[in-house]
Amino acid sequence: MAEFVISLAEPTPEDLQSTSELEKVLESYNVLEDLSEWEHRKEILAKLNTLFRQWVRDKSIARNMPEAVADKLGGTIYPFGSYRLGAYDKNADIDAICVAPRNVERADYFGSFFELLKRQPEVLGCRTVKSAVVPIIKMKFDGIEIDLSFAQLKLAKVPDNFDFFDETQLDKYDFDSQHSVRGVQVTEQILRLVPNIDTFRLTLRVIKLWAKRRGIYSHILGYLSGVSWTLLVARTCQLHPNATAATLVHNFFLEFSGWDWSQAVKQITDNKNFFVGDYLMTIVTPIERRANTVRFVSHSIRQMIIDELHRGKEVTDEIMLTKAAGWDKLFAAPGFFSKYRHYIVLLASSNNENDHLRWCGLVEFKIGTSIAILGRNPQIALTHVNPKRFEHPEHTSKGRSDGKVKQLCSLWFIGLEFDKPEGSNVDLTKDSDDFLDNIRVNAVHSKLLKNSMKIEVRHVEQEQLSEYLHPNLLMRESSPDVNSGATTRKRLPSDDEQTAPAVQSKKARTDSETPTTSSKSPPDPDNN
User: Fold this and answer.
1) Mean per-residue pLDDT, 509-521
2) pTM (2 decimals)?
3) Which burial class, exposed, middle or buried, applies to 12 when counting CB atoms under 10 A from its CB (0-12, 13-18, 19+)?
4) Fewer CB in 10 Å around end: N or C, the chain?
């Protein structure tokens, strides 16, 4: 087990000044919500809570329960994750759990409650994700992404004073629900473990912004999740209970750039062994039923994360020790679009926002599968997926003057490095077909696929990226120097400037240096 030393050092005037500068740079990235946006989230959760309690009551009455009894059943929606921690950004989703009494079944939740949500005027893109470790309902409610899980108590009603976070109460949940409530328990335990909540929140905001800017934040795409980054920050806070946020950020990189990943990362209160097994990275939850929060990291992605941690150490050394750099350098773009010669572009399109949210959710969920498929190709040395989803502004669901309906279109990019003899071809057609077939099967199985929903897989070379991305954005995402210096950083392109004026339908070339790909769309369900 790794040794650790707790430092009780008090902050110096220089530490306080560095933290003040860090806060100003964080504000310049426009990730913090104002009071009205915070109130909006509270109102959304209150509306959902009222809707859920009323549904529990109505469902029970429909099953011949007396109204007087049904009125007292209760039921609640409780948030957890970054929202509960108070360390979310303005574009973040809300994770919450719906807790119901024993007469309400999980099948009811994914049945009639799901249908009720779809009928709400504030709801867009409502879909179920039952194949996840914790099955959820995903949607956008009045502009905010919401992930709702479910837990059923073995009790006749949901007590107002029930402690949802107490692990000794797990026997009061049904078996499937015991896993669902662990996210809540982890969140509450973190809040109990960190010595200074406000400093922890600021530090976590910084690390999450850094991880997103550097392209290593996305559990669904094989990077570290929000809970993994949170646990790393919480451990850093425990080791330096009196430190300012600037010092904690520096110590975060000092600690984990040199971490031996054959060992598990645990909170310092956890003195139990954890079997690492075949995990490439292990970050353990701080609750009794411990689990690894890192599930799908590949060798190449682990190396990317380690490289970024080393870069973070070098940059924060410059900032904190030599004052040779400003905090904005930490968040500089990684130059993804100048790093590779070859890229795969995934294009998902549909007719309206409601369908598009559901369609993109499925495609994004399956991108990890496509990475695994590409990874099995012996001629591909490395696959690097950019976690950002890009939207094409020339596509709109409002229609055109000629009466034809334009489509919403979202783009994902995967950088490729090949391991092949000079002058040989790499044929990616089968890999592309396998990915598209995987999307099709899942879309048909979930009864989601519509005629208007299309997906394409294209290979492009670096010089062709301007056909898909606006030059301003391409420059910003390709050159880290553009982002150095918060006061001199160039104006970021608006949403309408984020992609090129037109996505050209260009077939992949098949010369001696360019792989071939497939660009078919999944068959429509009517043709099955």
Assistant:
1) 40
2) 0.87
3) exposed
4) C
